[in-house]
UniProtKB/TrEMBL annotation:
Superkingdom to which the source organism belongs: Eukaryota
Domain (Retrotransposon gag) ranges: 33-103
Pfam families, sorted: Retrotrans_gag (PF03732)
Name of protein: Pol polyprotein
Length: 104
């Protein structure tokens, strides 16, 4: 679920901010809450990227996670949806919610 991936990242980043996480701790905490398929994906990424001794900071994790769970095809569809968004019969409030959701 691509939207779920974005929402998960946003929620985890809110937790980081609330907890005052250091950059060093963000990946550790983020990975801790992964489940099932995402956890298996992470183990493989860690072996692939971490094999060279590269420290996997949150930005690197985030980029890899979104590459996996929010593909370029989905991004392109969202761009088209954004470009074609018109208020039409929606209230200003409904339009604003839709607009902000597509801006993510």
């Amino acid at each position: 679920n691509p939207e779920g991936a974005i929402k998960w990242v946003e929620e985890v980043e809110i937790i980081f901010e609330a907890m005052g996480c250091t950059d060093e701790n963000k990946t550790t905490l983020g990975v801790y809450v992964l489940r099932e398929e995402a956890n298996n994906w992470w183990r493989n990424v860690k072996l692939r990227i971490g094999a060279d001794g590269v420290a996997i900071v949150w930005e690197l994790f985030r980029r890899e996670f979104l590459r996996k769970y929010f593909s370029a095809d989905v991004k392109n569809k969202k761009v088209v949806e954004f470009m074609e968004l018109m208020q039409g019969n929606m209230s200003v409030s409904e339009y604003s919610v839709k607009f902000e959701a597509l801006c993510v």
